[in-house]
Design goal:
alpha/beta; Rossmann fold; 2 domains; 6-stranded mixed beta sheet; 37% helix; disordered C terminus
């Protein structure tokens, strides 16, 4: 931690919002601006009320009028104002202005920052609860480059005034965390909810950048959001940066493939390709608006003791990203919840690709005991979405190819299965006999046991990445021999 920022030993318990704001104000080195659009100047209000703000706040402003906002920050291509692009332009403009008007030569110890938010609160009809972008650009050392923490939030409260107050608390937590909790980003995430409840606000995306967060993997930060119940699902792209689901999925035809991908195999890619070919040939699907998602459930990331293996998660993410895929981590154990989640962003046709074994699990009653209507309610929700389920066949112990025509479900589920299939929801995929023997679990064991020939079971380039980065416990042959002999 910078010598300009002393530790947090002064507080054995969670400091109040006033204490957080006051501590920032009383630090003679911290100095910056506040720019808040859409929900009042709720964050800076906490700093003014705490006292001692004259040495900290260079400027506080709200450019509510669109013409004034455009004159200051420029016009967005999509003409929208509550966007990540607008937030970044606000941070760019305010930091540049701060540096221009307050020279480093005259203020060598100053830690400059700019806090900004652009939000929309609940509408008058209470149909849309509102959302927003919040961010801070800051220094922890006067001589370092700036760091950014940028997040997207969704309001859950049904009153605009309450939403404004919630935003003010979150903003104060963010500024305090940026300066005093930056050494532990995972903890910083949790501190954002100090004096807040998850029923008040949802954080569904966050990205860290800058020298202070050089070693931070934003995919791991995504995982933390789901792990701690801050949101139900997160997404990240091939570059490893977190993505806003609304931006990626809005009015898209979505094709999702669920799996453990531990590691991703030729069966996974063949299943996806076969499903994709049929999906884009559908008259109700616009090929130019198709978004392919690789989805991993939180339960698939947990060890036997219910703890999440973060290294294992990053290994899977690394491979999927290397293949150019968008990945979603969700808290949805049941498929109907996946469909409902996608349905909140699009009403267009969707596709779920799965193996035959997953289809059997889809009709397992134990997964729906939390619903008043049980499995019937779950399938009612699933069939209410415009969704097709693409099923990849598998071979059973008798070397018999199992498809939707001869798959065996529990006797109590036969009528429901017949109805679901007869409704045109199930579509059989053709398997590739030459790879039907490949299972992720078997490949994983081969990698960990130092066996050969597993490389041929994976998509091109994947084996090289596993070896180069020593993913999934891979050890070079010479190292493995030495380890086992010891």
């Amino acid at each position: 931690m910078s010598p300009h920022l002393k530790g947090d030993k002064a507080f054995d318990t969670v400091p109040s919002i006033k204490d957080k704001a006051l501590r920032i104000n009383l630090n003679e080195n911290i100095y910056g601006t506040f720019s808040e659009i859409g929900a009042g100047q709720e964050t800076v209000r906490n700093f003014f009320r705490a006292g001692g703000a004259s040495g900290t706040i260079a400027k506080a402003m709200s450019a509510y009028d669109k013409d004034f906002s455009d004159a200051i920050y420029g016009i967005e291509e999509d003409k929208r104002y509550v966007t990540e692009s607008r937030l970044k332009k606000m941070l760019d403009h305010e930091i540049a202005l701060l540096q221009e008007r307050k020279s480093k030569e005259d203020n060598p110890n100053r830690l400059f920052f700019s806090y900004a938010n652009t939000v929309t609160t609940i509408d008058f009809a209470k149909k849309y609860k509102g959302h927003g972008w919040v961010g801070i650009r800051f220094q922890t050392n006067p001589n370092e480059e700036f760091n950014d923490i940028i997040l997207h939030l969704r309001f859950k409260e049904n009153d605009a005034k309450l939403q404004q107050q919630t935003l003010g608390v979150l903003g104060t937590n963010l500024i305090y965390g940026a300066f005093y909790k930056n050494h532990n980003p995972k903890k910083l995430l949790q501190y954002l909810y100090d004096h807040l409840d998850k029923d008040q606000i949802e954080i569904d995306m966050i990205n860290f950048s800058g020298p202070r967060f050089e070693k931070v993997d934003n995919r791991l930060m995504s995982l933390q959001l789901v792990k701690h119940g801050m949101t139900d699902a997160v997404m990240f792209g091939p570059d490893g940066n977190n993505l806003l689901a609304a931006k990626i999925l809005y009015k898209k035809n979505i094709l999702a493939l669920r799996g453990s991908f531990r590691p991703v195999t030729l069966v996974n890619t063949d299943m996806l390709q076969k499903a994709y070919d049929i999906f884009v040939a559908d008259k109700r699907v616009d090929k130019n608006k198709v978004k392919v998602i690789f989805e991993i459930t939180l339960s698939n990331l947990k060890e036997a003791d219910s703890e999440i293996n973060e290294r294992d998660f990053l290994d899977r993410a690394e491979l999927l990203c290397s293949l150019g895929h968008t990945v979603m981590i969700s808290n949805f154990q049941q498929y109907y919840k996946v469909a409902q989640y996608f349905n909140s962003y699009t009403k267009k046709r969707m596709g779920l690709a799965m193996g035959g074994m997953n289809l059997i699990e889809l009709f397992n009653e134990k997964y729906y005991r939390d619903l008043p209507g049980g499995i019937l309610e779950a399938f009612g929700r699933l069939t209410s979405s415009d969704v097709k389920v693409y099923v990849y066949p598998f071979k059973n112990g008798k070397d018999e190819l199992i498809t939707t025509n001869n798959i065996k479900v529990h006797p109590r589920m036969k009528d429901l299965y017949t109805f679901f299939k007869g409704n045109g929801k199930l579509v059989d995929l053709e398997n590739n006999p030459s790879i039907s023997h490949i299972f992720s679990r078997q490949v994983l064991k081969m990698i960990q046991n130092g066996e050969g020939h597993w490389e041929d079971m994976l998509p091109e380039g994947v084996a090289e990445i596993i070896k180069e980065q020593k993913l999934f416990g891979y050890e070079p042959e010479e190292d493995f021999v030495q380890y086992t002999s010891n």
